[in-house]
Amino acid sequence: MPQAKLYDTTLRDGMQGEGISFSLKDKVAIVKKLDGLGIHYIEGGWPGSNPKDINFFKEIRKIRLKQAKMCAFGATRRADKTAGRDVNLKAMLKAETPTATIFGKGWTLHVEKVLKTNLKRNLEMIEDSISYVKSKGREVIYDAEHFFDGYRDNAQYALETLKVAEEAGADWIVLCDTNGGAMPYEVENICREVRRRIKTPLGIHTHNDSGMAVANSIMAVKEGCTQVQGTINGYGERCGNADLCLVIPNLKLKLGISCISDKQLQSIGEISRYVSELANIVPDDHQPFVGASAFAHKGGMHVDAVRKTPLSFEHIKPELVGNRRRVLVSELSGKSNVLYKADQVGLDLRKDKSQTSAKKILKLLKDLEHRGYQFEAADGSFELLMKKALGKHKKLFDLEGFRVSVEKREDNRLISEATIKVRVGKKREHAAAEGDGPVNALDNALRKALEKFYPSLSEMHLSDFKVRILDPEAGTAAQTRVLIESRDHRDTWSTVGVSENIIEASWQALVDSIEYKLLKDEK
């Protein structure tokens, strides 16, 4: 089986993406995750550029990695310095990584307009830098920056820069589509030509400015590149880099190229979410392979087909990439959606040959969605809806009343307070609590009132709160939909409420959330 080496640059190129920053602790944690995933090379940063990267390389030397090689990143020497006197190359060596990644210019425009030097001097800079770092016992990866643009502009010179890097002793030569403008057919043809001229192992580094980064990476591998560079979730400058969460499954599952193990591949979805969490970026539900919607089915005909044979609407088994099949319910659903969801929660509707129960639930679903409810993002509420429709719902408490107030005090602080009266069986409970806002106060008061009856409620908390105005033209009388996400130490679930009053809509969603938690604990 052909093989490819994976090179992750999330901690350098990925951090150049807008709004992305990792702390020193974050960077070390991500390295451990990437090493577990089976990444062969991890670029830790540019040690000559900032104090955080200098400290990172000190810290990472204390970590024993299973297989990954750490890489320090930097440029070829300055035009007016020798390699031995170049500050950035010294910093790269001081990082003490087994591998050094040096980038140089392969486009005459950059040589003359950006570096402000001549073509001959640029070749000398490439040769001197690689030779010097190699003489210090490092493995050297040479990143031919802007190579594809340079090849289009002056193919002879672009190839000459690669030849110089090869003769200087580079262990890898990586062709970079730094501006992200290359098309797959160009990458295919150019890589084929380079392979004829260069014997050193080749790699590919692509950006996504034309939406082609993953496709270009795949084409390069097909033409003989055996190292693929990219970032987790495609994070990076401008439109990002090649997304390794897409590249890796495509290489392994579509092209049959060995890069990580089957078990490691199953962790790629978890790592995608882990990195997005540290980056404080909401995961992309529609991200291929690893997104929450990648194997989600909504249309009734689709669900019916998937129930019969998943291959009908799924290109791979979701479990291969650590994902799972999801069936959504909405006004577009058919009985198959309801039957599938019922199976998931242990409600056997298949004994009913006439499917009366499924039809009843489907009608109720469509009526409620017509009124503004949305159950495809509220699995908790939908499970409760099914149990209520089937007469299998157990009421755990009754509301006798609540009051919510908002007070602005002299110090300009806004204080929300909720008082609530509930009845559990024949026992009444009265509780009050403050919160950051009316809904938070109501949530705190409700759980405070119920915790003596249901102690497990102390484990759960509200983790997200979304409000959607359904008919803005109605102004303050508009229907409001509230989606609440809750979690405990095991699970995450979502519930929904709809009303003209945002507090009432929030109450509906809160009650569903608590009932779902308690019923879940009884299973």
Architecture overview:
The strands form four sheets. The protein has an eight-stranded parallel beta barrel, surrounded by nine helices. Strands 11-12-13 form a three-stranded antiparallel sheet, with helices on one face. Helix 1 runs antiparallel to helix 12, helix 8 packs parallel to helix 9 and helix 9 runs parallel beside helix 10. By secondary structure, it is α/β, with parallel strands linked by helices. 39% of the residues lie in helices and 20% in strands. It folds into three domains: 274 residues, Aldolase class I (TIM Barrel, Alpha-Beta Barrel), CATH 3.20.20; 72 residues, no CATH class; 125 residues, 2-Layer Sandwich (Double Stranded RNA Binding Domain). Strand 12 and strand 13 form a beta hairpin. The model has no long low-confidence stretch (mean pLDDT 89). It is elongated. It is built from 18 helices and 16 strands. The longest helix is centred in the C-terminal third of the chain and has 21 residues.
